[in-house]
Amino acid sequence: MSLATRRVPRTSMHGWGASGGLLFKVLPLNLPYPVRTGVPERINMKILVTGGAGYIGSHTVLELLNAGHEVVVMDNLSNSSETSLQRVAELAGRAPEFHNVDLLDLAGMKELFVSTQPDAVIHFAGLKAVGESAEKPLWYYQTNVAGTLNLIYAMEEANCRSIVFSSSATVYGEPESMPLVEKLNMDAQSCYGRTKEHIEDMLVDLAASDDRWNIALLRYFNPVGAHESGRIGEDPSGIPNNLVPFIAQVAVGRREHLNVFGNDYPTVDGTGVRDYIHVVDLADGHLKAVDYITEHGGLHTWNLGTGNGYSVLEVLHAFEKACGKELPYKIVARRPGDVAVSYADPSSALADLGWSASRDIDTMVRDHWNWQKNNPNGYEEQ
Ligand code: NAD
Ligand code: UD1
Fold it and tell me: Residue 280 contacts by C-beta under 8 Å, 6 or more apart in sequence?
């Protein structure tokens, strides 16, 4: 059996006892961010987080632990490092259980469910690079679509039928109208986006066939930022594709300048406008969604965005303010496949979940910069 299970060793988590009082206790350290120890007041649910060592996953695991859930992480570490989970454990005061399993290993997935018996799943694991998806479409369909199918089979066999899925605003494609509302047709313009569409369709069909399934399809806008501690954050491998990680690497001296992809869009300053959302707000949306579906059942689709759009130059200038220096940029040609403007109507998530994003663009770039300057090479040794 290829299932390799191992816990993040508690011994490596210096000072974080499994014992403790009835409530979380804040450690007597003078830190500007919350660090907890001990055990939570109550364990709410046992939640399996696929891709939990990655960028959004690690922030969500931290919020789940802080909210008193028991967390099992499965990840093959193909785009992440176990260090993120060790740091999550430091911040939470207790560790998630970690299993190195590949989504494509059906036997391993089934065994994982038998051995851990989760109540619900938050499914982040997958591939996400738009350009790469055009070059390796079968790998993307296999990992994202067939991988999710494996997960569903394993869940079904273990009688676990609650899942929150990481979809993307990219499924809207060339928007018919703005802001983007969930009822718009999907029309993804990339192979990556189409894998998200296929998975959404698959889950819609599943929910229609069997009302024991509880499903949330979360369409994220543009996740940025990091936990306020600066201990966990986004650690892209190679040249970042996305705007804020690229700017952060310019700020820290790893890249010479930012290429701004086009300044002739019909926007405030000609550069593309997006709905950036702080990753901790996004993580919080997952907690609300998993609570909602386990209580109410059914299938639900929610946008997770702020409802505000910022241009490339506005984001660049906000970052300059955060890092206290001017950042060089050059205007270059538009990037193929980009839309001029994309922002969410997040009112369904507010109405159903009571969720809205609370962190503004200055907080997003401040926290992103704090992570980048403290970890110039990401999770790699300095
Ligand atoms: P990430 O790459 O940091 O995290 C994904 C995790 O999945 C990684 O830890 C990786 O090691 C793991 N993984 C990949 N293939 C796997 C496999 N076959 N088996 C097991 N684990 C595997 O990405 P992220 O930014 O945290 O994104 C998480 C999810 O959110 C993805 O599904 C992504 O498509 C979606 N999403 C991300 C964004 C974004 O801008 N970051 C936007 C919209 C949607
Ligand atoms: C990209 C992906 C999308 C994915 C989303 C979030 C493409 C075509 N789309 O969308 O599928 O869901 O990320 O992960 O890749 N920009 C620059 N210079 C850069 C990088 C970006 O000017 O070096 C501009 C872009 O043209 C865009 C804005 O910054 O106007 C944001 O870009 P990015 O962070 O890549 O996000 P999206 O384009 O929204």
Answer: 59, 63, 225, 227, 228, 359, 367
Catalytic residues: 192
Residues at CB less than 6 angstroms from ligand 1: 51, 53-57, 75-80, 102-104, 124-128, 143, 147, 166, 168, 220, 223
CA distances to 186, 193, 357, 358 from 350, rounded to whole Å, are 22, 25, 9, 12
Length of the chain: 382
Those residues with Cβ within 8 angstroms of residue 267's Cβ, 6 or more apart along the chain or in another chain: 273, 311, 340, 341
Q: Whose CA is nearest to atom 22 of ligand 2?
A: 260
| Ligand 1 geometric centre to CA of 34 (Å) | 26
Confidence (pTM): 0.92
Confidence at 337, pLDDT banded by 50, 70, 90:
confident
Taking only the tens place, the pLDDT of each residue in 52-99 is 999 999 999 999 999 999 999 999 999 999 999 999 999 999 999 999
* Residues 182-211: tens digit of each pLDDT: 999 999 999 999 999 999 999 999 999 999
Pocket mutation for ligand 2, best pick of 132, 255, 261 (most atoms within 8 Å of C-beta)? 261
User: Cα(156)–Cα(136) distance, rounded to whole angstroms?
Assistant: 30
Q: 310 - beta bridge partners?
A: 274
Residues 6+ apart with CB under 8 A from 202: 145, 148, 149, 152
Ligand 1 centroid – CA 324 distance (Å): 31
Task: Mention every residue, 6+ apart, whose C-beta is less than 8 A from residue 360.
Answer: none
Q: CA 11 → CA 39, 61, 92, 313, 381, distances in Å?
A: 16, 20, 15, 46, 20
| Axis crossing angle, helix 82-92 with helix 55-66, rounded to the nearest 10 | 20
More confident residue, 31 or 281: 281
Give pLDDT tens digits for 103-161: 999 999 999 999 999 999 999 999 999 999 999 999 999 999 999 999 999 999 999 99
